[in-house]
Design brief:
Chain A: This is Acyl-CoA:6-aminopenicillanic-acid-acyltransferase. The complex is a heterodimer of chains A (387) and B (70). By secondary structure, chain A is an alpha+beta fold. In chain A, 32% of the residues lie in helices and 25% in strands. Chain A has ten helices and 14 strands. In chain A, the strands form two sheets. In chain A, strands 1-4-5-6-7-8-9-10 form an eight-stranded mixed beta sheet. Chain A is globular and about 55 Å long. Chain A starts with a strand and ends with a strand. The termini of chain B are far apart. Chain B has 70 residues and is mainly alpha-helical. A two-stranded antiparallel sheet of chain B has the order 1-2. The mean pLDDT of chain B is 72. Classes of the chains: A alpha+beta (387), B mainly alpha (70). At the A-B interface, helix 1 and helix 4 of A face helix 2 of B.
C-alpha cells in the first residue's frame, strides 16, 4: 500500500514527520538516485556541488520550504544536501552536463550510450461545461514504485501558503509532485530534456509544491513571476488547472528563460507528452524518445474517436472519469505506449521504466482518483477528496 | 611405534612439539589482534539541525510519541 502521510504543523515539523515516517523509503530513494546520477555521469562531488547551490537558492527564495527540507533530513537521519539533491533530481540528472562525460547535446535518439532514461509522461486536460478535468500517467523508474508516498499536508497559517490543504503523490523525501489542493488547483509534471540549467532558479519539484500552495492558476503565475525567480532551474512541463468558475487550464513549458504558456485548444483541451510544443523558445532541447510524439498523436486519436461515439457533455462524472482512464490505459505501440511497461529489449535502467501511477482529477468537485501501477494492471486504487 | 620427525630450520622436531607451537602462535596472534583493535564505534547519524528550542522540543516530543505507540 502507498505510504499515506498526514502532515501539519510548522514547515520544519511537517518535514520532520515526513522524514521520520518515510525514513526507509527515503534511504531507498537515495540509493536509487545515487545509481541514477552515477549512470548520468555525475560524480558524488558534482551532485554535492549542485545541491549546495540549490540549497542556497531555495533558502533565499522560499525559506519556508528550506525549513521543510531541513526537517525531512533530520527525520530521515541524512544530511540536508542529500534531501536537496533528491528535490533537484531532475536538474542534476537531466540537465547537468558532467565535466568528465560527453555533453547531452551530442546525444541522439538512437545513441546506445545514453545511460539513463528520462521520465515519459502523458498529460491531458479538458474543460466540459465548466467542469475542469486534469489527468496524467506518471512514468518513471520501476524501482521507485515502492517509494511512492501520498502527502496530505495542511500548510502553516503563518507561511506564504496560508493554511491550505494539499494532496500530492510523490517520491519519499520530495516536497511534492502531482496533486491538487483545497483551492481546486491541480498540477501535473512532464519531464522535458534540455541542457540549460540555472542554479539561481528553483528546481521543478520545489515549484510543483508552490503551485499547490496557490489559490488559482493566475495566483500561481503571479507568484512565480514576482517572487519565485520567474522560471525554473531546468526545462519541464506543468499541466496546471483550477476548477473555479468555468474552469481554467494551461500548459506551462517552464525553464531558465521563464514560462511559455499554451492555452487550451478550441475544444477546451490540453495535450502534452515529453517534447516542447512552443516554438521559438531559446532552449537547447534534446529529444530522446520518438515515442513522445507518437504518444501525443495517439492521445489525440483516442479523444477524437471518443468524440465520434459519445457527446462528452452528456456524461456524468463516473463515466467521464472512466473515459479519461481509458485513454491512460492505452497500449498502442507497447511497451512504449501511453500505458508504459518495462522494455526488456533495452539494457539496464533504460528498460526499467513503466507507468508508476495514474491520476484523474475533477477540480470543480475537488476530487481525484489514483491508480497505482500500470492502469491496465492496477496494484491499488483510491479516491482523494478534501471534505 | 616411532612417531614421525619433522625438520625445521635444520632441527628435528617431534609432532607434539609442532602442535604446541602452532596452537601457541595462534593464541598469541588472536590476543594481539584483540589488544590492538579499536573500540567499536557507535553508529553515527547527522546531527539534528533544529534551528530553535521549539524545534528541539518538537523533535523530542514527536519521537517520544512514536516510542509510546510501539
Amino acid at each position: 500500500m502507498v505510504n499515506r502521510l498526514v502532515l501539519k504543523g510548522t514547515n520544519y515539523e511537517i518535514g520532520f514527520k515526513h522524514g521520520t515516517l518515510a525514513r526507509s523509503q527515503i534511504h531507498a530513494c537515495l540509493t536509487n538516485y545515487a545509481t541514477y546520477f552515477a549512470n548520468a555521469g555525475m560524480s558524488p562531488g558534482d551532485v554535492k556541488s549542485l545541491a549546495t547551490k540549490f540549497s542556497e537558492t531555495i533558502k533565499l527564495l522560499v525559506p519556508h520550504l528550506h525549513d521543510e527540507l531541513r526537517g525531512i533530513a533530520d527525520g530521515a537521519c541524512v544530511p540536508l544536501l542529500d534531501i536537496v539533491a533528491l528535490n533537484s533530481r531532475s536538474e542534476i540528472a537531466l540537465a547537468a552536463k558532467p565535466k568528465n562525460g560527453k555533453s547531452d547535446e551530442s546525444s541522439s535518439d538512437d545513441d546506445d550510450n545514453i545511460p539513463v532514461p528520462p521520465d515519459g509522461c502523458t498529460t491531458f486536460a479538458e474543460t466540459v461545461d465548466g467542469r475542469q478535468w486534469l489527468a496524467q500517467n506518471w512514468d518513471w523508474q520501476t524501482s521507485q514504485l515502492c517509494n511512492l508516498v501520498l502527502l496530505e499536508i495542511t500548510t502553516p497559517l503563518d507561511s506564504p501558503s496560508n493554511a491550505r490543504m494539499l494532496k500530492t503523490m510523490t517520491e519519499a523525501g520530495l516536497l511534492a509532485k502531482v496533486g491538487f489542493n483545497s483551492e481546486k488547483v491541480g498540477v501535473c509534471l512532464n519531464a522535458l530534456r534540455a541542457t540549460d540549467l540555472d542554479t539561481n532558479k528553483l528546481p521543478l519539484h520545489v515549484l510543483l509544491r508552490l503551485v499547490l500552495e496557490s489559490s488559482s492558476v493566475a495566483d500561481a503565475k503571479e507568484r512565480f513571476t514576482t517572487k519565485y525567480g520567474d522560471g525554473a532551474a531546468c526545462f519541464g512541463h506543468f499541466g496546471i488547472a483550477d476548477g473555479k468558475g468555468e474552469g481554467h487550464a494551461e500548459s506551462w513549458e517552464i525553464g531558465p528563460y521563464g514560462i511559455a504558456v499554451i492555452p487550451r485548444d478550441a475544444e477546451g483541451r490540453l495535450y502534452h507528452t515529453n517534447h516542447a510544443l512552443v516554438e521559438g523558445v531559446k532552449i537547447n532541447e534534446v529529444i530522446w524518445l520518438e515515442d513522445t510524439k507518437e504518444r501525443l498523436m495517439r492521445l489525440k486519436e483516442l479523444v477524437f474517436a471518443s468524440d465520434k461515439k459519445t457527446d462528452v457533455k452528456t456524461l456524468a462524472v463516473g463515466p467521464q472519469k472512466d473515459r479519461i482512464f481509458s485513454f491512460l490505459k492505452d497500449e498502442d505501440n507497447f511497451p512504449n505506449s501511453i500505458c508504459r511497461a518495462n522494455d526488456d529489449s533495452q539494457p539496464g535502467l533504460l528498460g526499467e521504466m513503466q507507468t508508476v501511477f495514474s491520476i484523474v482529477m475533477d477540480l470543480k468537485e475537488d476530487v481525484a482518483w489514483v491508480a497505482v501501477g500500470r492502469p491496465k494492471q492496477v496494484l491499488e486504487e483510491f479516491t482523494l477528496e478534501f471534505f | 611405534m616411532a612417531g614421525a620427525v619433522y625438520h625445521v630450520f635444520g632441527r628435528a622436531v617431534k609432532p607434539h612439539q609442532l602442535s604446541i607451537a602452532t596452537l601457541g602462535s595462534t593464541a598469541a596472534l588472536v590476543i594481539g589482534l584483540n589488544l590492538t583493535k579499536k573500540p567499536a564505534e557507535k553508529p553515527t547519524s547527522p546531527p539534528i539541525n533544529a534551528a530553535s528550542p521549539e524545534e528541539e522540543d518538537f523533535v523530542k516530543d514527536f519521537m517520544k510519541s512514536l516510542e509510546e505507540k510501539k
